[in-house]
Predict the 3D structure of the following.
Amino acid sequence: MELEEDATGRDRLARMLAAAGLTVAAAALFRRGKRITGALAGIGALALGYQATTDTLETEPTASPSRPATSSALVCAICGEPIVPGQARGPDENDDIVHVECREATAETAD
């Protein structure tokens, strides 16, 4: 799910306005003597202001499972598909790295 260019500008503006509103609310709460509530509103204003001023929405793209395998990635010797982290794998009779499912499938057809 990708963000639109216009939505990021609107989101940043909304955060700035919310931070400004929380700053005003924090100042009013401090004047009324409600220090804990005012401090919490001030912390919220700082957090929203920080998020609005930093460029956190445009982070580096995350790795997708459909990304092509690189030369350093493990590839199953039987099916040729990449072996992703977390998949069960092991050596076959030739000490090549294969999926456990591929090894079991070839063992069943050999019998």
Summary: Strands lie at 89-91, 97-99. The helical segments are 5-32, 35-53, 100-110.
